[in-house]
Design goal:
Layout lengths: L5 H15 L4 H7 L4 E10 L5 E12 L5 E7 L5 H17 L6 E7 L7 H15 L8 E5 L5 H15 L20 H19 L8 E5 L3 H12 L3 E7 L2 E4 L7 H11 L7 E2 L2 E2 L3 H4 L17 E4 L18 E3 L8 H9 L3 E3 L1 H4 L2 H14 L6 H26 L3 H16 L4
Parallel strand pairs: 3-4, 3-5, 6-7, 6-11, 11-12, 12-13
Antiparallel strand pairs: 1-2, 2-4, 7-8, 9-10
Helix pairs in contact: 1-3, 1-14, 3-14, 4-5, 6-7, 6-12, 6-13, 12-13, 13-14
Length: 426
C-alpha cells in the first residue's frame, strides 16, 4: 500500500507534527525536499577481465544543524524512496539526539557477496572518487549501513585522504579502531536503546526487574540490546533471526552463550544453552516452545523489540500484540495503520528516531575525537552516550505530556523545534 511507502510515510509524519508547532512554510517546504541528490555511474574491472557497471548515489537531505550524516549501503534492491526516507529520518534522528549533524544516505546498487575483496575495495574507492567534491568532515560524513563495515569505511577514508593529500579520518565514521574509529561503536545502537528504555521506565515509575522481553532480530543491534537488558535485570524470553527462533518462557539464561552458538551454527533456532552446551535437545528441559516466524511479535511479554526489518508491525498483527511497551530498534518497523491501533490499545511505543539513535551519537563522538585529536576509552564513551540518551528521552517524554501526543509525535516535535531554532531563512 502506498501509505507504507517509507518516503510517503515520512512526509505524513512531518506534516502532521509541523502543524502542531506551527512550523513556518519555507522550512516545511525545505524539509519536504532534498538539498542534493547525487547519482553516479561506477565502472569496475572485474576479476574475469570484463567491465562491471554499477549505480552509486548519495542523498543529502538537510544540513541546517551540521554536515550531512548517514550510512552507505551496498545492496541490489535499494529503492530511491527507501533512501529518501532514511536520509530524512537521519535528519530527524540527529536532531532528536541533539548532535550537530544533518541527514544523508546512500550507497551502491550491488550484491557485495558476489564480489571478491579486491573488487569490493576498488568499487568503494571508485565511489569515493565520484563523491569527493560533495563529501568531507564539514560537508558530509558517511558511515556503515547494510552490508558495509569498518573495513569498507577504512578503504573509504584511505582513498579520500589520498585525493585530499592529507590524512582525513573525520570524513567517515565506523572505521576500525586503528584507523581512528571509536571505542564502543559496536555496542552503541543496542546500548543506546537500553538507556532510552530505562529512562522512559523511570518516567512512568516502572522497575525493569524481571520485565519480560522478546527481540525480533539477532544481528549486531539485537545481540547487544539483549545482553545489556539482561545485565539490567530484564528477563529475555524470546529471540529470533531470519531462520528461526528460541522461546523460553522462564527466561533465556545466558545471551552470551546464545551468541556464541549462533556464530558457530549460523542460526539461532537450536541455541538452547545449558552452561556452555547448546543443543535442541535442551529445549524440553528448559521449557522451550516452538514459534512460527512472526509469532514472536505476538507473545505476552512486557517489552517487544523489533530489531530487524521495516514494516513488521502492521494492521494485520497490531491487534494481536500483547506487549505493553515496544522499543523500535529497526528503522520504520511500524506502519501508519498499526501505529493508530497501538495507540488505541495504550501500548507505549518508543520510536526508532529516539531508541536507535545511540549508533549515530557514538558516530558523532568518533568524528569529534578525530577532529580534536582525542582518544576516549570505552567507559567514557558509554558515560557520554548515557547522558545523551537520557537527556533526549526525557525531553521526548516531557513533550509527550505537554502536547498529549504519542512518543513518536513527541520525538518529531523535539526534532522540528531544534531545526526551527537553527533555521535562518534568507
Amino acid at each position: 500500500m502506498i501509505i507504507n511507502n517509507p518516503w510517503r510515510r515520512s512526509l505524513a509524519q512531518l506534516k502532521k507534527n509541523a502543524k502542531k508547532i506551527n512550523l513556518n512554510k519555507p522550512l516545511l517546504t525545505k524539509l519536504q525536499n532534498f538539498d542534493r541528490i547525487i547519482e553516479t555511474n561506477l565502472s569496475l574491472k572485474m576479476g574475469n577481465g570484463k567491465l562491471g557497471k554499477f549505480k552509486g548515489y548519495r542523498i543529502q537531505h538537510n544540513n541546517i544543524l551540521g554536515p550531512y550524516k548517514g550510512g552507505l549501503r551496498y545492496h541490489p534492491q535499494v529503492s530511491m524512496d527507501e533512501v529518501k526516507a532514511l536520509s530524512f529520518w537521519m535528519t530527524m534522528k540527529n536532531a532528536v539526539i541533539d548532535i550537530p549533524f544533518g541527514g544523508g544516505k546512500g550507497g551502491i546498487v550491488v550484491d557485495p557477496k558476489i564480489l571478491s575483496e579486491r573488487e569490493l575495495e576498488e568499487l568503494t574507492r571508485e565511489l569515493v572518487r565520484k563523491l569527493f567534491k560533495n563529501i568531507g568532515p564539514r560537508v558530509d560524513v558517511p558511515a556503515p549501513d547494510v552490508n558495509t563495515n569498518p573495513k569498507i569505511m577504512g578503504w573509504f577514508e584511505d582513498e579520500y585522504s589520498k585525493i585530499a593529500k592529507k590524512y582525513t579520518p573525520a570524513v567517515v565514521t565506523g572505521k576500525p579502531l586503528e584507523m581512528g574509529g571509536s571505542e564502543g561503536r559496536n555496542e552503541a545502537t543496542g546500548l543506546g536503546g537500553v538507556y532510552a528504555l530505562l529512562s522512559i521506565l523511570k518516567k512512568i515509575k516502572k522497575s525493569p526487574k524481571n520485565m519480560t522481553v522478546a527481540i525480533q532480530g539477532f544481528g549486531n543491534v539485537g545481540r547487544n540490546i539483549a545482553k545489556f537488558l539482561q545485565k539490567n535485570g530484564f528477563k529475555i524470553v524470546a529471540l529470533s533471526d531470519s531462520k528461526g527462533s528460541i522461546f523460553v518462557p522462564n527466561g533465556i539464561p545466558d545471551i552470551d552463550q546464545v551468541e556464541l552458538c549462533k556464530e558457530e551454527k549460523g542460526f539461532i533456532a537450536e541455541c538452547y544453552c545449558i552452561g556452555s552446551v547448546c543443543d535442541l535437545r535442551h529445549k524440553k528441559q528448559m521449557g522451550g516452545k516452538d514459534l512460527k516466524s512472526l509469532e514472536i511479535l505476538e507473545l505476552p511479554v512486557d517489552v517487544l523489540i523489533p530489531a530487524a526489518l521495516e514494516n513488521v508491525i502492521t494492521k494485520e498483527n497490531a491487534l494481536k500484540i500483547k506487549a505493553k511497551i515496544i522499543v523500535e530498534m529497526a528503522n520504520g518497523p511500524t506502519t501508519i495503520e498499526a501505529d493508530k491501533i497501538l495507540e488505541k490499545k495504550n501500548i507505549l511505543v518508543i520510536p526508532d528516531i529516539l531508541s536507535n539513535s545511540g549508533g549515530v551519537a557514538v558516530s558523532y563522538f568518533e568524528w569529534y575525537q578525530n577532529l580534536h585529536h582525542e582518544k576516549w576509552d570505552k567507559k567514557d564513551v558509554f558515560k557520554k552516550l548515557k547522558q545523551k540518551m537520557e537527556k533526549s528521552a526525557g525531553e521526548v517524554f516531557d513533550t509527550r505530556e505537554k502536547y498529549n501526543v504519542t512518543l513518536r509525535d513527541a520525538a518529531y516535535i523535539v526534532a522540528l523545534e531544534r531545526i526551527k531554532k537553527n533555521y535562518k531563512h534568507s
